[in-house]
Amino acid sequence: MSWTRAHGHxxxxxxxxxxxxxxxxxxxxxxxxLGHGAFWRTGPGLPEGADPPGWPRVVAVVPARDEAAVLPxxxxxxxxxxYPGHFGVIVVDDGSTDGTADVAARLxxxxxxxxxxxxxxxxxxxxxxxxxxxxxMSRGVQAAGEPEYLLFTxxxxxxAPGTVTRLVRVATAERRxxxxxxxxxxxxxxxxxxxxxxxxxxxxxxxxxxxVTRDGARTAAAAGGCMLVRRxxxxxxxxxxxxxxxxxDDVALGRLLKRAGGRCRLDLSRDVVSRRPxxxxxxxxxxxxxxxxxxxxYSPALLAGTIAALLLIYAVPPVAAxxxxxxxxxxxxxxxxxxxxxxxxxxxxxxTYAPVLRFYRLSALRAPALPLVALMYxxxxxxxxxxxxxxxxGAWKGRTAAPQESRTTGS
Length: 411
Hints:
- Residues 389-411 are annotated as: Disordered.
- This is Glycosyltransferase.
- The chain is built from 14 helices and eight strands.
- By secondary structure, it is an alpha/beta fold.
- The chain folds into two domains: 7-36 and 296-406, no CATH class; 58-279, Spore Coat Polysaccharide Biosynthesis Protein SpsA, Chain A, CATH 3.90.550.10.
């Protein structure tokens, strides 16, 4: 056999392998697009709902650690909600060193009527086995008394007027034990515009919002920036102590409530907006890497499987398409399958990403670049495992999650 003929057989074999991988990727994308809870649909947001016969008492719990800079942008939007019933806000100062408690008290202006207004409480010393944020949330619950609903929210979240009222309308009209809104994140910088929409897209792929909302579906999650929870249901499920070590507290809380029979709803929202900036790639990288390996249960096998799946689903289609079409241009007829299949899978991928880009008012022309962003996420996930092995897993705001607290998920 001549060298030319042997080389041709090798090229055909390589193209055949790429074609098989492309077909596997296409099968994956057909399932994701058609059979995975329509995860790519951003949805209309909360319906208006009807007024309840009586407006239940609501207390918002805001864990805050070194948030003095952002509170002036966010806390006033919560205090100005004009909820028709009794509405109070509790800011839990979680060991801040920047005067967070003083800033919150000043913004509250002394507002308090026993049921409403603002209170600032100290988280105090964290018991062993508790994650910092969950402990601060539990201190807020203790201070809240016995409202019908607790609104767990983050210090960087701003609320559009009337949002709390709409949340309660939906919770009471649909008999929901959890109504969660995924906040609109900042996309002001170049890195934010690249990373943030993909973060939302991947979250929805892991936890399709429609499946979370569907009764009987096993998928459960929440978005920690805005979680309206029926207090009785939370207590019946074991309270926050049941997820005391959770590093990803929102997903753990959603699972806890749904497994206890609670009815949940999760939406993407423009009424709930994060004011936290991520100006540098390093900031966004840390946001993802701090919890990615925790999401994989600290399993090297799951880590390897996740990275392999990301490469297959996101990297193979563009590689097959570009390589295949280049081969066709050079007269390699065997390249037709990877060229066509890879391009189709890449097109479906981009089409499912476009709605999230539109939600963030970004051009759909960015969608074909999703494979590059996915490779960055694969690198962040691998780095998350590296940080964990180096004893820096879950590092956030100067505090690193202890091994016992990062492994307890409550889910």
